[in-house]
Amino acid sequence: MSEPGTFFHLHEEDPVEAYENFKLGMWIFLATEVLLFGGLFAAYFIFKFIWPDIFEAGSSHLNRFLGGLNTLVLIFSSYFMAMSVDAAQRSQQKKLIRNLALTLFFASGFIIIKGFEWIPKLNHGITPGSDVFFSVYYMTTGLHLLHVVIGMSFIGLLLKRAIGGRYHSENFGGVEVGGLYWHLVDVIWIFLFPLLYLI
Amino acid sequence: MSEHKMGHIQDFSIYIKVLLALIGLTFATVLVSLVDFGIFNTLVALLVAFIKASLVVLYFMHGKYEDRVTWAFVYYPIFLLMTLIGALFLDYGFRDHTHFANIPQSYDQKHPEAAHGATTEEHGDSHEAVEVHSEETATDDGHSSSPAAAIESSDHAAPAVDEMIESHEVESQTTAIHGDIEAGRAKAKILCIACHKVDGNGNELPGAPPFAQTANDASKTPELLRNWIKNPQEVKAGSLMPNLGLSDEEVDNLIAYINTYKK
User: Is the ipTM of this complex over 0.90?
Assistant: First the structure.
């Protein structure tokens, strides 16, 4: 039932069991990702507690509109990722390709908007070394941006394989696991946006 | 095929409902941030973010259909993170962090100062010229080798002093002090504060005299202070005062700041 090179082919496992383990592996990895960002969130809360005025002054430099727009862009991207998994589960080949392309489109939008935020700031001399708020700001959003880029490369791979006709109702583990990673990137931003931009 | 099927196909409408809820909650979190709940601002923002994240995990990530083992890996990092943040707050919450040796400044605090510093630099150049002139006058007259004392007793230098006070708004009566008080204060808050109290903050270690004592000690002339700050070991070998490696301008700024303690 499986094509050459898929995870299911490498093991003498029941395909459903292999699929469940594939997903569980990603959930375990996502737990470590939460802790990776968690260290930075802890730094955020402690620094904000000790130096609230620096955080208030720094936060006022951020563009709430661009931050909010990026939140919506990432939510749409996440939605189309979920729709991609749904399409793969229903063996809807064309819909899968279209939804993956839309996921990538919104992901690129996020990076472009982020560029419109970062580049004027850096030109203005606001750098990671400017103060403790901007250290946290550039570190958290930078690490998140790195995850967006990694996620996009995975979605690109999924798109390439989807065009090759790899995914269908009995082999969609790859799309689902790629989706899990992409949704975590969205979840992290859901927390970063209010903490950095709004309060 | 095994008995239980692969994955779970959700009703199509769930996705669009979750999407609409997430968009609505994004607007809600922006609107709610415009209301000031005081210390609860962070809590409200986190609560909305938590609801949004839960929707993504439950419906977009199909967490609703996952087994207990998977959910253990959801709760586990959250529990560890709560422990980390909780322990940090137990530690920092009971510390007097106003006495930290290094009090960082915000970008805004640094920035107007940088603009201010650029203008005072121009002033600084002209004063240097004034000072050189008055120093020459003093030595020519042979009154004293100390420029500070020389100016006070020299009639020749009086106009120069007036000019300096006028342009620089320094209350000091000695030409030797021509640094930028605010720049000096900023530097002191970073460097001196580890051993001397600066504006009432910081440590006061044994062997590190308060600025007020130094400023009111007539024997500590600006000239002596300049040499002292530039290289303490040369003035008094074995002193605990470290060589801070400052530029002439930075030393002058510090001396100007210390001089504000003069009664």
Answer: yes
Q: Is A47 helix (H, G, I), strand (E, B) or coil?
A: helix
pLDDT of A28 reads 97
Give the amino acid at B40: F
User: Cβ A38–B80 below 8 Å, yes or no?
Assistant: yes
* Nearest CB neighbour to A198, from listed B33, B106, B107: B33
pLDDT in tens, A100-146: 999 999 999 999 999 999 999 999 989 898 889 999 999 999 999 99
Is A35:B81 a contact under the CB 8 Å cutoff? yes
Whole-angstrom distance, CA of residue A111 vs CA of residue A104:
11
User: Is residue A161 a part of any domain in this protein?
Assistant: yes
**Candidate from B9, B42, B76 with C-beta closest to A31:** B76
Q: Give percent of chain B above pLDDT 70.
A: 71
In a domain, A187, yes or no: yes
Q: Residue A35: which of B66, B77, B97 has the nearest Cβ?
A: B77
CB contact under 8 A, A75 and B84: no
* Mutation to test the B interface, candidates A23, A183, A185, most B Cβ within 10 Å: A183
Boundaries of domain holding A83 = 12-198
Strand partners for B198: B201
Report chain A residues whose CB lies below 8 A from the CB of B28: none
Contact A15 B6 (CB under 8 A): yes
Per-residue confidence (pLDDT) for residue B184, from 0 to 100: 87
Distances from the Cα of B91 to the Cαs of B77, B79, B128, in angstroms?
21, 18, 50
- Closest partner residue to B92 (CB to CB) among A50, A126, A193 is A50
Q: Which amino acid is at B251?
A: V
Interchain proximity A187–B56, CB inside 8 Å: yes
Q: Which of B176, B196, B177 is nearest to B188 (CA)?
A: B196
CATH of residue A31: 1.20.120.80
- Residues A21-69: pLDDT tens digits? 999 999 999 999 999 999 999 999 999 988 888 999 999 999 999 999 9
Across the interface, whether the CB atoms of B7 and A172 are under 8 A apart is answered yes
Q: How far apart (Å, rounded) are the C-alpha atoms in residues B206 and B39? A: 39
**Is A106 domain-assigned?**
yes
Q: Which three-class secondary structure state does DSSP give residue B201?
A: strand
d(CA B105, CA B109): 6
**Inter-chain CB pairs, A–B, below 8 Å:** 164
Q: What pLDDT, on the 0 to 100 scale, is given for residue A10?
A: 59
